[in-house]
Design brief:
- By secondary structure, this protein is α/β, with parallel strands linked by helices.
- The protein has one domain: Vaccinia Virus protein VP39 (Rossmann fold), CATH 3.40.50.
- It is about 35% helix and about 20% strand.
- The chain is built from seven helices and seven strands.
- A seven-stranded mixed β-sheet has the order 3-2-1-4-5-7-6, with helices on both faces.
- Helix 5 crosses helix 7.
- The longest helix has 12 residues.
């Protein structure tokens, strides 16, 4: 994450967004439920305040923001301070790893994906959920980034870029889903989820 101090400073503002946008939040959780296993040992990279880890019953989280990590811990997530580019876990530790709405904030996405692959057990799942750069919602967030303290320094990625990094790390073959929000009718909103399975 480029500057976790923003998240330390505005942790309440960040967490309140989910309460103020319940339909969007629930649609994202519902979409993730299709890909996140309900069994096994899981880790969320960039756990934040555990708004995804808690309802998805993910046991472990990692985040560079101490204040975010403290809130996640209070929501019963075993949380450590750290970055996705250098995970403090042994090889082949987790059955699945989730990166939800965090890849636009990491310094080195390729390295974060490689690290997530490293800590996965063979046949484990890496699930990446993000706002797609070219989508209606992604475009909206980019246009308003100067008005949003969290997205001022965010780097949005295209579906092709993320699939490319996953393919480089683990080979081809990924499942993809996009959510549809009411505001966008039948057009995919841009919240994209990709799941890849570690081969070896």
């Amino acid at each position: 994450m480029k500057d976790h101090r923003i998240f330390d400073r505005y942790v309440e503002l960040y967490d309140r967004w989910y309460d103020e946008h319940p339909r969007i939040y629930q649609s994202e959780v519902t979409a993730l439920e299709q890909f996140v296993p309900w069994h096994g040992c899981g880790l969320e990279v960039g756990v934040g305040t555990a708004r995804f880890a808690a309802p998805l019953h993910i046991q472990y989280g990692i985040d560079p923001s101490r204040r975010m990590a403290q809130v996640a811990y209070e929501r019963d997530i075993l949380t450590v301070i750290g970055r996705g580019e250098c995970l403090p876990f042994c090889d082949n530790t987790f059955d699945f790893v989730l990166m939800a709405t965090v890849i636009c904030f990491v310094q080195d996405l390729k390295q974060s994906i490689m690290e997530s692959q490293r800590v996965l057990k063979p046949r484990g799942s890496l699930i990446i959920a993000f706002l797609e750069r070219e989508s209606p919602l992604g475009t909206e967030y980019q246009n308003d980034s100067e008005m949003n303290v969290f997205f001022q320094h965010a780097i949005f990625h295209s579906l092709e870029e993320v699939v490319g990094y996953l393919t480089e790390a683990n080979g081809p073959g990924h499942e993809v889903i996009q959510t549809v929000f009411e505001d966008y009718g039948t057009v995919p909103s841009g919240f994209v989820i990709i799941r890849g399975t570690k081969k070896v």
